[in-house]
Amino acid sequence: MGLEADDGWPETSPPLRRGVKRQIVQSCEIGKPSREIGAEYDIARSTLRRWVQDIRDRRLEMEADVSEQAAPVFTRRQA
């Protein structure tokens, strides 16, 4: 998947772009209608959906990684 910054966006994305994407995704996640976000930032709704899905996928991957790393610790404690 390539190098990623701590914020989940690829390292190749300029910092301003990552910050704007993060802000846009957060607006969507708190319930702002996608048509309003699209009009405000001049982006297609399909682009917004893709960004939201990308960040959710990355979060799920990070959660899975943490679970995999924590499983042996919990198994040892229960034994």
UniProtKB/TrEMBL annotation:
Source superkingdom: Bacteria
InterPro entries tied to this protein: Homeodomain-like_sf (IPR009057)
Identification of the protein by name: Helix-turn-helix domain-containing protein
Protein species of origin: Bifidobacterium hominis
Lineage: Bacteria, Bacillati, Actinomycetota, Actinomycetes, Bifidobacteriales
